[in-house]
Amino acid sequence: MLSTILSFISAAIIQGIPLLYGAVGEIITEKSGNLNLGIPGIMYIGGISGIVGGFIYEHSTSSPNAALCILIPLLSCLVCSAFMALIYSFLTVTLRANQNVTGLALTTFGVGVGNFFGGSLKSFFGESGSISLLTTGNYYKTKLPFAGSLGAFGDAFLSFGFLAYLAIIIAIVASLVINKTRVGLNLRAVGENPATADAAGINVTKYKYVATCAGGAIAGLGGLYFVMDYIAGAWTNDGFGDRGWLAIAIVIFALWRPNLSVLCSFIFGGLYIICTYIPGLSSASKELIKMLPYVVTIIVLVVISARKRRENQPPAHLGLSYFREER
Amino acid sequence: MASAAIELRGITKRFGSVVANNNISLFVNKGEILSLLGENGSGKTTLMNMISGIYHPDEGEIFINGSPVAISSPHDAFDYKIGMIHQHFKLVDVFTAAENIVLGLNERGRFDIDKVSSRVAEISAKYGFEIDPRKKIYRMSVSEKQTVEIIKVLYRGADILILDEPTAVLTPQETQKLFAVLRRMRDDGKAIIIITHKLHEVLALSDRVSVLRRGEYVGTLKTADTNEMELTEMMVGRKVSLNISRAEPVDPKDRLVVNNLCVTNRDGVKLLDDVTFTARSGEILGIAGIAGSGQRELLEAIAGLKSVSSGELVYNDFKTGNSENLRNKTPIQIRDLGVRLSFVPEDRLGMGLVGSMDIIDNMMLRSYRRGNGVFVERREPRELADRIIEQLSVVTPSATTPVRRLSGGNVQKVLVGREISSAPTVLMAAYPVRGLDINSSYTIYNLLNEQKARGVAVIFVGEDLDVLLELCDRILVLGGGRVTGIVDARTAKKEQIGLLMTKHGEVEQ
Amino acid sequence: MSGKKHSAPPVYITKRDGLIWYKSWLIRIVAVLLALVLCSVIIIALTGFNPLQVYSAMVRGSFGTSRKLWTMLQNLAMLLCISLAVTPAFKMRFWNIGAEGQVLVGALATAACMFYLGDSLPQPLMIAIMLVSALAAGVVWAFIPAYFKAKWNTNETLFTLMMNYVAIQLVSFFIALWVPSGSGVMGVINQNSRSGWLPSVFGQRYFINIVVVAIVTAAMFIYLKYSKQGYEISVVGESENTARYIGIDVKKVILRTMAISGAVCGLAGFLLVSGTNHTVTTNTAGGMGFTAIMVSWLGKFNAAIMILTSFIIVFLQRGAGEIATKFNLNQSVADILTGIILFFIIGCEFFVNYKINLRHKEGK
What we know:
heterotrimer, A: mainly alpha, ABC transporter involved in vitamin B12 uptake, BtuC, 13 helices, B: Rossmann fold, 18 helices
């Protein structure tokens, strides 16, 4: 029984990590007032760019080096994800386009790019079959060296690849930066009231660009974790599923707080797979359980709007463009 | 001669086809308070926004300590130690006072909000402000918020301070306190510009005064060498006598009786407190008061847009002899009672009209419900639009031009034209001539007088006392949400009304 | 004090007072052409094919045969229908991005009627019941977020977004319930009796769908432009304060408009199941609920222009599907090309609405 629970916790964490990256990325983005609905697409891009980077490297050498196996996909993931967010920023901040429309177009584009390269990468190299980067995947899955010696506890909490820990570190750092630093204060001001931030001498455009691109890069890591660690260097079209949207749900569920999103991601991750741990569930009720995260998010959304506690609201200027000389 | 702390030379700023500032030059020395005087819409705020980096001038140059500068962002303005206190506070609601104060600053060292708080407390103590640095802005009163704004500028050690109508929201005591602070800062060697349209403040506080009129620079005087009369003439550009015609009311009868009206906001603060008055048919009732004394709430409560917490609004129907209490009725219910109430709100394009719609569709706002059909009827509105364009000489390319593209005066003609087209029995107009040129203003006065002659009970909220005194029959003065007096406009003195406007502070003591 | 020298920004941006229509369309056409050039570059880089050849294949993909033409028209009709559905809400500035879910529940309700009623009822009655259930389901799905928006100003973008996934799971739930094998795939319902299937007209099985959407298009155009309710929607969307001022019950308009939005989505769901697929999957709406948002927005919430914008998108998708098959590429190339063209169209609106002015150098 205990071992089932521990293995459930471990699985929930594994499921939660991509969501956590997505959620933290989106929180940072939303704190600047940008509602980036392109995050699901960016996460696809993060995954596929890592795969492409890893694939090209594995093909270029006969003895892949561990550091490069990690670094090349990581860098290509960060660069490509941030570039996607840059497109979003350029359209919504500089060209003042509607955020919802831009974000959705970005998701269409990102999912398309992911599935296109995922499906055709091997044929470009004249090979057939599906992508499998076992070597790279194994490096990404390397556990903490002492995890095995700690028994069940080690299995449940310490048996993850480095990206899992990085996710938690990023969430905590993001939380500290947003709440405890000057940069964080300025960022929150930009999302709450850009005119005030502008008048206070904050470069609103710069903050929006940087936050959105940083958020995009972080979200992209969620895609990378999924393809490299969770499915060990493979790609299946649409395999990432609706996790990107689940990440956006977590943003609400966590009340726009990165530290809280760690817990929320693991809860959502647990809900995602809990049905396989409850014996005797019909396939229909499994689907109902999968509905839970969204229903819970809706309830949270309704409750915070009904209670009107100012500290729990979405950033006041979320979804709107800012134009200084408008009068 | 030492160069001025800040000097403007030939500043021009246009918004589209509107010239907000035309070739304006002025300067302030260190250790000096300059008043920037002008009526509403004379371009004072636009000019100051260019100093603080919100706008960039189309032409002209700005000099700081004698050297030319380009202030292209508020950040640049801070670098030049320019601090602006806006009329509409620029504060983040969910932040604390301390967080707002350090917002955007690049101080060295670790960011420590507690340290900031103690420095804020220090500044507060020095100047006698009372403020809790940890209090959230959304929990603060208006004057607390202004205090935060001022501390924000002091915290940044600004040498040049610009205050945009800082006293509009303050009680006389708070105003005196503010002036004491400003004098202390002047003695500290700071250059201060205070934007205002209140003459007694200019005379009480400033060393020199520069006057703007309709975006043009009129002149600068030493305060010691001038007086209210001279300043007024510079500001309005003509004798104060306006020659607005005023007929004797014909057969005035009580049309709208307001008894003990109270309106409170969400926080339980009374915006209108025990307001009692009567509006009579065939009469223009003026409403005077400093900005935000409850004028808007009063009109909105009568129009059914604001919920009333106590009191009554009795409408007398002369035809049927019935009296109806309009309290907390919706605009539709009021109309269905047969009450023909017209309302020209202060916010013309944000409330009275839809900016992106053309004149015809704006005519329909009041009448589109007519008839039982599912579809709107555009024939009558089109005729009405054409009629208004012709009769009020609205300058517009066509009746299908979005009203947003019209000039302020023409927008107002469209709005007033529509509101009087429904043959109202009560007509309420809030600041109907604000921002209008003289000709348009007189068109509006004439329209109001016409309505009065037709036996309409006209309620006119104004800010220019001279206009109120010449146009209205009686003037009700609001101070802090209370009626501080109702005077006969034919005999009342301007000073008497001015006194009543600031009376609420004394009442509360 | 500061030694920094600041210079004025070289360009500044002002809002246009309004651009003559042909100029604004010229800007948009240029944007699409630029997007096609970029797409060509990408196609060459990826495949080495001649892009002209690729584009002509795209045209053939949509118009090549009468069957392709009808399929294209059917896709166009469905996308347009959903775009029309979200339009009244958008016009009211209510960001209904929940069309996907509203279509799905409509489809689900339709399929449920077909599944449970089988061939027990005469066909016209059957179709009527299906239609009513689909509309009702769509209305309910749209009404829930609208209710909370009206009551507590709950963020409708996030709410409707979440409702999509609740709907998807609901569909999965019922499929799992209805398909005992556990395959999770609902086969064609009433394959033999064809009960609840919209009939073919003139030998075209999509004929009714297309005609219905044509009617909806005209009706929506008239509703928004000439009806009292449509006028109220415009007023609420432009200025809630003005709406209050003239006594419009804003909450009522929000609820009513979202109900209409949901009903048309439900209708789309009905057509997709009864007229097109005769089954339901979580992919029945196939992302059209999201694409529709872009169609509606790009079409300026004008039903007539939306015919054009939805055509562009469907043409791209059909055409890209064709080249994918023909040149042995992955079908997802359609999404990439759609995405790129959308970016350009979205971006070009800036140049329609704003003017970039060069600042003239001023003498010292």
